[in-house]
Amino acid sequence: MKILIIGSNGFIGSHCVNYFKSRGHEIFQADVNDSEDVNFYKLDRQNSNFSKPFQENQFDVCINASGSAHVGFSFEKPSQDFELNVVNVQKILVAIRDYNSNCKFINFSSAAVYGNPQILPITENSSCKPLSPYGFHKLQSELLLTEYHNFFGLSTCSLRVFSAYGPGLKKQLFWDLYQKAIKSDEVPLFGTGSETRDFIYIDDLIKIIELVIDKSPFKGSIYNVASNVESTIAEAAAIFIKEFSADKKIIFNGEVKIGDPNNWVADISKIIDMGFQKSVGLDQGIKKYAAWAKELK
């Protein structure tokens, strides 16, 4: 297959590049940062134009791993977050419609669309009540994919990613733990530690993408991307600290961080029906992340 990966220098994007190259696919990349790789398209940070790759090639699949994935940023700069997570998605869809209408389009949404669900586990049919501009913008991007499938016949699919992690991730819980642990013996975190998340290791996430490419009908389809395992923040943080620097002490401040949900665990029946089987558990995945982080010091 010929695959375009937008946001190819980012966490998920770079893992997609490496994996699909290893599988023998012809990979094209696009990002705002420079690269010496062949088949690379440089994008402007502002007013990005996504037409050129589709004008010059006919792709089988486009994976959009670009945009902002930071809840706090969406409160600080909601207009920029909207530009990155909604406007740019619409621009990509227009480019596909105009130049490469047979291309399958996968966009990364987020579990943030759900907010604080009333019932666990969360299914794709659960109510969406975002707690942040970021969550609202991801929900709007999903509606765009539905629109362009319904009215223009494009093959589209949204992946609601829960708490993805792995080597190369420089944000969210484990990166926060790493940065604080190298500076102090006390590691402060928001909340009580009893909050829960559904963590998924990057290798499993990539396998889900591959399954979706092969088996999804791409009719504005939506899938939860998670492990169906509910883990507390305290449990995950303790595993990381034990592996990274066991003499550090984690302190939860009891404060709720704006935009953060209380409890998440996903129903992943749809991807299980496609053949997904988790290969990396939380303990093993965090050990891999901690080993990568130690190499940064």
UniProtKB/TrEMBL annotation:
Pfam families: Epimerase. InterPro entries: Epimerase_deHydtase (IPR001509), NAD(P)-bd_dom_sf (IPR036291). Residues 3-226 form the NAD-dependent epimerase/dehydratase domain. PANTHER family: DTDP-D-GLUCOSE 4,6-DEHYDRATASE-RELATED (PTHR43000). Belongs to the NAD(P)-dependent epimerase/dehydratase family. This is dTDP-glucose 4,6-dehydratase/UDP-glucose 4-epimerase. It comes from Flavobacterium defluvii.
